[in-house]
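Quick log. Single chain, no ligands specified.
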Amino acid sequence: MSQVRARVTALLGAWDRQVHHAVAARHWPLAEPVLPRLSRSANHGLLWLGTAAGIAALGRVAGSLAKPPTGQQPPTPPGPRRPRTLETRSRRAAVRGVASLALASAAINTIGKRSVRRARPLLDAVPVIRQLKRQPFTTSFPSGHAASAAAFATGVALESKSWGAVVAPVAASVAFSRVYTGVHYPSDVLVGAALGVGAAFALRGAVPTRSQLPPPGPPHADAPALRDGDGLVVVVNRQAGSADSARLVHELLPLAELVECRPDELAAELEKAAGRGRVLGILGGDGTVNRAATFAAARGVPLAVFPGGTLNHFAYDLGIETVQDTCRALAGGEAVRVDLGRFTPGPGGGAEPGHFLNTFSLGVYPELVRIRERWSPRIGGWPAGVLAAARVLRGEHPLEAEVQGRRRPMWMLFAGNGIYQPVGPTPGNRQYLADGLLDVRVVHGGRWPGLRLLAAALAGPLSRSPVHAAQKLHQLRISGLAPGTPLAYDGEVTAAPRELVVDKQVEVLTVYRPQALL
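-> predicted structure:
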């Protein structure tokens, strides 16, 4: 074993000396007046401290320039959630870069330099004009300058990719300058850079970046406490299969007013109920809740959702599984704000936008969901999604549309109101309903649609594959749709207009939810 180790060490040493001499012998245009100065400027981390100060200052200036003039600023959405501005992102990048540098420097100077006492390279082959005026006196392995440069650049990039792209070439130049000026062997620099990157990621493990942090809880909303339902008007869809639920609502909330109606009467009754009650209640499935949410948001009244339909995705994602859950939230005045998806023009091409609490889709998604819901209680959600993807639309032609300015064939386009888990083409549930994002997923067109959808389902958590793509967007533009293309939203189906825009109204709806579930 000792002989093998000695042989490996000898080979690495020979490679180190060979590369070192090759760098020294080669002429590097424009490097002589730049790299020695750059190497000296990085002594004691001064270059990176100055860079961090510059990043923070430039981010502050850019953030102030991006703000609209006084008197023209848009109203701030309600709630404590604030967008992550350029100023904040730059400041966090600067702080993380300096902290990563400090951790790397401490590790190199206390452990690295003392563990391997390697002598510095000889300067015989290095031109005098390149040599540093003051030669370092510490041991050679590993390179502290390379470690600091890599740590700072990695730390900055973990918080801001744009600033990381700016800093990375400078950090690489500093690392190379240590070989160019003859004060380090190439392996010193490579190992030092690897330790610097490791220090930045170790710091991220202890102090997560903003992108790693879980989303904050749904923003709390003020809503009246109605213990016995006084001031609550509940509209009940008779055809939602909710007769037992309606009786239970009446028993638990004796002072609430219940209005039963047919589907064709739903819009008129919801409008009247939203106008005369302190709280609008709705008992039905997702399509019924969708219509109630539109009226509640328009009138600015809180919405109480009682699950009573065949599918209750919105209620379940809120954590409401029973009528008792909603009653408990009403009694305590416990509510949250949620987003409301929107597509313009609305159903039938009308001027008023359409809204969705759960999903908006074009293509085969409605049929895919129907099959998955049928089989998931028997075989589980993931196998049911695979089965649905394999069976839908055999022999059908893909949908042709222009999405975000790019024409493409696709079997399915899905936009969720909030990010769904998992990330495959058959989304399951949402943990957060006020993230301001659309969960957009596309299954690309091509031959053998069943096989492509099956492959997309098997791709599961992959956000991009040859057949499936997923993105988080604030707005989605679709055009070039053929006349009669079906559009599905929250279980309702209508004809899509030739072109439309899908976006969100952020935190526009107040919904009751038991606080114990937050």
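Confidence is low (pLDDT under 50) at residues 66-84, 460-464.
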